[in-house]
Specification:
It is a single chain. This protein is α+β, with helices and mostly antiparallel strands. It is built from three helices and six strands. Strands 1, 2, 3, 4, 5 and 6 form a six-stranded antiparallel β-sheet that branches.
């Protein structure tokens, strides 16, 4: 499966991704967002194969990726996943400010 240009455009249009603060890379059936300055992975949006649904995964302290919370991975539409990232305090720091 190749990267979908429409999904890439939707991710890159988020406030935290505008201005080049976040790099988005497609790899192994998902999109990984990295902090441009540090190169650290921020979040992974793994495609489920159902429409535009993704599973949000966070970097694990053991290496790899893990779902947030105690209830395991939950699939959701891309727009809902991006909205949850936009309102996450961690990503608010990456938000581009405009005057």
């Amino acid at each position: 499966m190749a990267a979908d240009p429409a999904i890439l455009k939707r991710i890159r249009s988020c406030p935290f991704a505008r201005g080049g603060r976040v790099l988005v890379r497609f790899r192994a059936n998902g999109y990984t967002l990295f902090a441009r300055r540090s190169g650290e992975p921020l979040v992974r949006l793994r495609l489920t194969g159902e429409r535009d649904e993704v599973v949000v995964l966070w970097p694990s302290h053991r290496g790899g990726w893990q779902p947030p919370g105690d209830f395991g991975a939950v699939a959701m539409p891309l727009d809902l996943a991006l909205q949850s990232l936009i309102t996450n305090p961690y990503f608010l720091d990456l938000r581009q400010t405009y005057s």
